[in-house]
Design brief:
Length: 307
């Protein structure tokens, strides 16, 4: 994807150097609506504290300062422990400024696409804000953490993206490439488009009266439509002539790798279809490609008929 030198969006909040607290629930991975479990922490018992004090005094008497030892190898405060250096994709091994510039450029491209589409229909498109963070932060929908994955919060109309996710996408999910990363951003912006069109508010209201299985089935349709909207953005990007050979395959591979069935096979060795809430790999590939091939909102009706 030829993204260097193009316009960058100003609608980005960079919180990568902030330390945020956790609390409450968020939408799940890649724009889902699950409530991830937070970390639980417990205090130390009196006996443990006494033992630590005794150990400290013993080592101190031996000329070893445990405080200095501990201080030299702890985490960086972002929620991720420091580790030895390995060869990593651009977002870690390269400049963090480069990754930020990339995300700003992709967001700008989505702004241009959706402003044009909405204007052609006599609508006004309000740009979302994208929040970059590292480890954890807060949103109007509750906590945002690495465990939640990228998500869109309709309450504040912001997309939340932990900058480590691109590395996970490549290293864990096997979906590398800048257009695969761009697909993730475009999918979350797709949820913002749904919010602007009134689709998300209707779903959230209806979900209050659904059982879990029914809510999951409806969530799949919401997610697949966001994939289709991401495909529409991809079509407009292709028409600008800034896609490289293989870019489309990168996005389709990303959709394949993060399908519910593929993820469950990878993590637990079997699938539970009733627990799906994003769609199978085949469904995600189908709807992204449908948006890409058509470039039309009318082609993204995931709520009528089978998906």
């Amino acid at each position: 994807m030829e993204w260097q030198g193009r316009r960058q969006s100003q609608n980005v909040e960079d919180r990568q150097n902030e330390r945020g607290g956790l609390g409450g629930g968020t939408f799940g991975r890649s724009g889902g609506f699950g409530l991830p479990k937070g970390r639980r922490g417990g205090g130390m018992s009196i006996g443990t504290i006494v033992l630590l004090v005794v150990l400290y005094l013993v080592f101190k008497a031996m000329g070893i300062d445990l405080m200095q030892v501990l201080d030299s190898g702890t985490s960086d405060g972002s929620g991720y422990e420091q580790s030895e250096q390995h060869t990593l994709p651009r977002s870690q091994s390269g400049s963090s400024n480069e990754m930020t510039a990339f995300v700003k450029t992709v967001l700008a491209e989505t702004e241009d696409t959706w402003q044009g589409i909405f204007q052609s229909q006599g609508r006004a498109y309000n740009d979302p804000t994208l929040v970059l963070f590292r480890g954890q932060t807060r949103s109007a929908c509750g906590a945002a953490s690495a465990a939640s994955g990228p998500f869109y919060c309709p309450e504040d109309q912001k997309v939340y993206l932990d900058t480590a996710f691109f590395d996970e996408l490549s290293n864990r999910f096997g979906a590398s490439g800048d257009f695969a990363e761009a697909y993730v951003v475009a999918h979350e912006v797709g949820h913002h488009v749904q919010n602007q069109l009134g689709i998300l508010p209707k779903f959230n209201e209806a979900r209050q009266h659904m059982g879990q299985a029914e809510a999951n089935r409806m969530s799949i349709r919401v997610e697949l439509q966001a994939d289709c909207f991401a495909g529409i953005w991809g079509k407009f990007t292709q028409q600008k002539g800034i896609l490289d050979a293989g870019d489309l395959e990168e996005a389709l591979n990303a959709a394949q790798q993060i399908g519910d069935d593929t993820l469950q096979k990878r993590t637990q060795g079997y699938v539970v279809p009733d627990s799906f809430n994003h769609g199978t790999s085949a469904q995600r590939v189908k709807w992204f490609k449908q948006g890409f091939d058509s470039g039309q909102l009318s082609a993204c009706d995931t709520f009528s008929g089978p998906v």
